[in-house]
Write a structure and sequence with these properties.
By secondary structure, this protein is α/β, with parallel strands linked by helices. It has a single domain, classed as Rossmann fold. Helix content is 37%, strand content 16%. The protein contains 10 helices and 6 strands. The chain has helices at 8-11, 18-23, 29-36, 41-45, 63-73, 90-98, 111-115, 154-167, 182-191, 201-211; strands at residues 80-84, 103-108, 125-127, 140-146, 168-177, 216-220. A 6-stranded parallel sheet has the order 3-2-1-4-5-6. Helix 5 (63-73) crosses helix 6 and helix 8 (154-167) packs across helix 10. It is globular.
Length: 223
């Protein structure tokens, strides 16, 4: 297991006004979270004050992440990868550009995201939950989950981490939200609309050890 940061450049490209988010008169935090947790139009393509405000494919945005991961894990044509919490499949599509011939699979709880996914990979995506992956043991050369597992309740986390370990035959990687101090904790509480597992890095590492997760990881901080 190693700490490997593939996501900071993407995360830090967004400017955030934490106080405006939590105090918005039309979409106060509780209302925004209620809408976001339906994982439907409002979460992906609704008002920016709720969540993404239009989650569209942007050329190059995810390709650098796919390239860095492919190079680090030595991915090649014929390898099988799984994205747990794939959303609209943008990162999976960019994997097919970076590693021609790679076999991609994705799973997401949001039927809206799957119905509006990137056409080139849409037939490789399916509905499901991280805590019960519908794949045989040791199915994938790389199984990864980015900004997804922190949306699970504690009673779901154990199963999800064990499932990632079960279906991966070689490499595993996950990225989750975390906080190192009270300022980052406050910012996370103000900004997030779907997070359920509010854990420090030490707590996440306890989860990894407890569940036998042996893959790599990184954390997203709201500084």
């Amino acid at each position: 297991m190693a700490y490997i940061d593939f996501l900071s450049a993407v995360h830090k490209s967004t400017k955030r006004d934490y106080l405006a988010r939590v105090n918005d008169p039309d979409y106060p935090k509780a209302k925004a979270a209620e809408l976001a947790k339906k994982w439907d139009f409002d979460y992906w393509d609704g008002d920016r004050r709720i969540n993404y405000g239009g989650y569209r494919y942007m050329e190059g945005r995810w390709e650098k992440v796919a390239r860095a991961m492919a190079e680090h894990y030595g991915l090649k044509a014929g390898d099988k990868i799984l994205d747990v919490g794939c959303g609209k499949g943008f990162l999976l599509f960019d994997f097919t550009k970076v590693v021609p011939g790679i076999e991609v699979h994705g799973l997401d709880i949001s039927r809206y995201a799957l119905e509006n996914a990137k056409e080139e990979v849409k037939d490789r995506l399916q509905p499901g939950t991280a805590s019960s992956l519908p794949f045989p043991d040791h199915s994938f050369d790389l199984v990864y989950s980015i900004n997804t597992l922190h949306n699970l309740y504690n009673y779901e986390l154990e199963a999800a981490l064990k499932e990632m370990e079960r279906v991966g035959r070689k490499h595993k990687y996950l990225c989750v939200e975390s906080y190192r101090n009270e300022a980052e904790k406050t910012n996370l509480l103000y900004w997030q609309v779907t997070c359920e597992a509010f854990c420090t890095p030490q707590e996440w590492e306890w989860w990894f050890k407890t569940t036998g997760y042996t893959g790599d990881h990184s954390f997203i901080y709201f500084e």
